[in-house]
Structure formats: structure tokens, C-alpha cells
Amino acid sequence: MRQLYVVPRHRLAFAVWLTLLALPILVIDNIPNTEARAASVKVEAVRESGSTTTTAPSTTTTAPSTTVAETIPVTAAPPSTAAPKQQAKVVAPPTTAAPRTTTTTTPPAPANSQQGGASWYDYRAGECAHVSIPKGTVVTVTSLETGARTSCVVTDRGPYSGGRIIDLDRATFAKLADPGRGVIQVEITW
User: Fold this and answer.
1) For residue 52, which of 5, 13, 73, 108 sits 20 to 30 Å off, Cα-Cα?
2) d(CA 25, CA 189)
3) Which of 93, 99, 117, 127 is nearest to 166 (CA)?
4) Are 60 and 75 a contacting pair, CB within 8 Å?
5) pTM, whole model, 2 decimals?
6) pLDDT by residue (tens digit) across 142-162?
7) What CA–CA distance (Å, rounded) separates 108 from 31?
8) Collapsing DSSP states into helix, strand and coil, what is residue 75?
9) How far is residue 173's CA from residue 180's CA, in Å, rounded to a whole number?
10) Is 62 exposed, middle or buried (CB count within 10 Å of its CB: 0-12, 13-18, 19+)?
11) How far, in Å, CA of 142 to CA of 144, rounded?
């Protein structure tokens, strides 16, 4: 019975390195994908056949590239005896700009806002009452004391007394303050 061959770790590491790193580079490097590589292959083929006719190597060179698909052949230019051309510098004439005027603007106030008292009553959640805002309008209600903010939809009319501007349902009021307070100062925007 033959004993199995166990690969030493250093040979296994070399095999992994060769497979993952070196072999793909060697394969990619040996693909004739440019004119310079193709010309060198033609020259070698002619030499091997023993023919007296030889093909001159191509004068193209390849620019370094990160991928095979992006290799760009560049033709070498013959040396020039003429003096190098001077590039003319274009200088823009100085401009005299009109002095800038800056205006400061204050941020626009909300389209409609009102400040006053808000109370609560037993009504459908998310709905509120106002005297003049059109029904179906979404109103943002902000507590002036805490800054807490919530919104509701106007679906009813009121309040008509007590200096209040809006009646909220109990759940909406609870988002702003304790319902036991009864009336709080708010700002409404719509």
C-alpha cells in the first residue's frame, strides 16, 4: 500500500500565491493584444521558418496601462531638428467690475400664522377646530412654552370664546402639554 504524499506548507503557500496572483498576471501579459506584440510574434515566426525575408519590427510602443482593454498604441515621432515652438501666453485685460451691492433679506414669514390659546375637546384624533381656516387645511401647532410641534387637520368650527384660537383633540393636545392644563399658548401655521 502506498502512502499519500503530504504537501509541505511552504509549497502549498507558493501554489496559492502562483494561482491567485502570479498566474493571472502572466496570462494577461502574454496575450498578443497590441500591434507591438503582434509584430514581435511575426518576427519570431519568420525566424523560426528559416526564411531570408525578415519583417522590420514595428515602431509603435505601448503606453503603460492598468488594464488590457485600455492599452493605447503610441507611434514614436522622428526626432525634430526644428526649435521647439513657444506657446503664447494669453493675458486677459483687467476688468473693472461695478461695485457689488449686497442686500440682506429676512427669511419669509410663514404664509399664514397666528398666536393665541389652544384648548382641547373630545374629538377624532388628528382633527381640530378653527373659526376661519378652510376645512381640510393641515395646521402645524407649536407650543410657545416647550417648542413641541404637532399637526392636525381642520374639520370643525370653533372656539368662539375665551380668547382661544384653536381647539385640538385630546391626543394632539397631549403631544404639546398635559391635558390637565386646559389651555396653552401656541403658534399655528398653515
Assistant:
1) 73
2) 68
3) 117
4) yes
5) 0.43
6) 999 999 999 999 999 999 888
7) 67
8) strand
9) 10
10) middle
11) 6
Strands of the chain (E only): list them: 60-62, 73-75, 113-121, 127-129, 138-143, 149-156, 164-169, 183-189
Per-residue pLDDT tens digits for 156-181: 999 988 889 999 999 999 999 999 99
Measured distance CA(118)–CA(158) in Å, rounded: 11
Q: What are phi and psi of 119, to 5 degrees?
A: -125, 180
Q: What is residue 71's predicted lDDT score, i.e. its pLDDT?
A: 46
Alpha-carbon span 148 to 177, nearest angstrom: 8
Q: Is the pLDDT of residue 141 over 60?
A: yes
- Grid cell 515652438 is found at 85
Q: How far, in Å, CA of 20 to CA of 4, rounded?
A: 26
Which range, 9-23, 33-47, 58-72, 138-152, has the best average confidence (pLDDT)? 138-152
CB 185 within 8 A of CB 117: yes
Question: Is the distance from CB of 121 to CB of 165 less than 8 angstroms?
Answer: no
Q: Which residues contact 153 (CB under 8 A, 6 or more apart)?
A: 126, 127, 128, 136, 137, 138, 139
Query: What does the radius of gyration of the chain's CA atoms come to, in whole angstroms?
Result: 42
Res. 4: pLDDT tops 60 = yes
**In Å, how far from its chain's centre is CA 59?**
45
CA 48 from chain centre, in angstroms, equals 58
